[in-house]
Specification:
Elements: E1 8-10, H1 12-25, H2 30-45, H3 56-64, E2 75-80, E3 83-87, H4 93-111, E4 113-121, H5 128-131, E5 139-145, E6 167-171, E7 179-183, H6 190-199, E8 208-210, E9 215-216, E10 225-227, H7 233-246, E11 271-279, H8 286-301, H9 317-329, E12 331-333, H10 335-348
Parallel strand pairs: 3-4
Antiparallel strand pairs: 1-12, 2-3, 4-11, 5-6, 5-11, 6-7, 8-9, 8-10
């Protein structure tokens, strides 16, 4: 009997090719399909399982439903030395954010800092996918976004007016791995709720609450409650501010205008993002900055620990470890996900993964 409990390990190249085939089958041009496949797979490689190939069936449904433009004219509509506003023409978020991130990096080379806002985009995967791109250019990356479904009420309320609105910041170091913070403004991202539901697992207490204020642990009942913000009212405040910067400022959806892309396969989401690139050389020599980063990282890691604490962790260590493991051993695909992907392949009449 086949083992259905141990996830199948699939090389990243196979995932990329499968995603590109699926995107091509619904009309995405070959070059764009390859870019989407690369970025989605990169999410899985770094351990962001709720934002990688897990999302492919949903993306395909929305494309087939007419909610996403497969041949967008992505362009800059407003511009100054240190900023730009990008209109994604309702294209796949991965394509829009790749365009915006490249613009931010190019502008930061001259301006020192570049802030690029985005409107009329779509879900683009994990926040750190774009915050980490400036690292290769000796820059700090910062990313904000409005989530693609409202699962958070204002503090003390019940109306779903806010999303998980994430932030990611990536800071390069020298000999040490970069610091990479990637977090939702809720205790858990909704993608984690969806993966728990697909795997038949329960959620820990503290992720969600029902409308009577009681803990909600069954992910299949998620529509009966809402996500909890990090740090209580402070997380609510962060979700609001990030939404204003990534959504309202750019003319993108925010509040009641946010479309639940989990339930709606026909309506454009007008998703808003922000990518900021900070050129370290504009502030100090890059070598000096990286030396200071290495020293600080080692101070934190080697600092005195509480009894019973094995080690001090730093933001990004999980993704570094996942990347090393999955690059070497392949990306784990649980049986329910593999089954869903094989079903998708049959529907699209493309070669399956397995």
């Amino acid at each position: 009997m086949a083992d259905t409990t141990t996830p199948l390990r699939v090389p990243a190249q196979k995932l990329e090719a499968f995603i590109a085939r699926a995107m091509g089958a619904v009309g995405v041009p070959p070059g764009d399909a390859r870019i989407i496949g690369e970025l989605m797979t990169r999410a899985d490689v770094q351990g962001s399982e709720g934002h990688g190939i897990f999302r492919l069936p949903q993306y395909i449904r929305r494309i087939k439903g007419g909610a996403v433009n497969v041949k967008p004219d992505i362009r800059v509509v407003r511009e100054a030395a240190g900023m730009a506003l990008v209109d994604g023409d309702n294209g796949m978020g991965h394509l829009v954010m790749r365009f915006a991130t490249e613009r931010a990096i190019e502008k930061a080379k001259d301006a020192g800092v570049a802030w690029v806002g985005v409107r009329w985009s779509n879900h683009a995967g994990p926040a750190s996918l774009y915050a980490t791109v400036p690292l290769a250019h000796d820059m700090i990356g910062l990313y904000l976004a409005v989530g693609n479904a409202n699962h958070l009420p204002p503090w003390g309320g019940l109306d779903m007016l806010l999303s998980t609105n994430p932030i990611a910041v990536a800071v390069p170091a020298g000999e040490e791995p970069p610091i990479i913070l990637d977090m939702a403004t809720t205790v858990a991202a909704y993608g984690k709720v969806k993966t728990k539901a697909q795997r038949g697992e329960m959620m820990p207490e503290g992720w969600m609450m029902d409308r009577q204020g009681r803990p909600l642990t069954d992910p299949k009942r998620a529509n009966e409650g809402f996500l909890l913000p990090i740090g209580g009212y402070k997380g609510y405040g962060l979700a609001l501010i990030f939404g204003l910067l990534a959504g309202t400022l750019n003319g993108a959806a925010m509040g009641r205008d946010v479309v639940d892309f989990n339930a709606d396969d026909a309506t454009p989401t007008n998703t808003g993002h922000v990518i900021v690139a900070i050129n370290i050389e504009a502030f100090q020599p890059v070598a000096e900055f990286k030396k200071s980063m290495d020293a600080l990282i080692r101070d934190l890691r080697n600092s005195q620990r509480l009894p019973g604490v094995e080690r001090i962790r730093l933001p990004g260590e999980g993704s570094h470890a996942a990347r090393a493991d999955r690059t070497r051993n392949g990306i784990p695909l649980p049986a329910p996900l593999l089954s869903a992907l094989n079903q998708l392949a049959a529907e699209l009449k493309i070669a399956p993964l397995s």
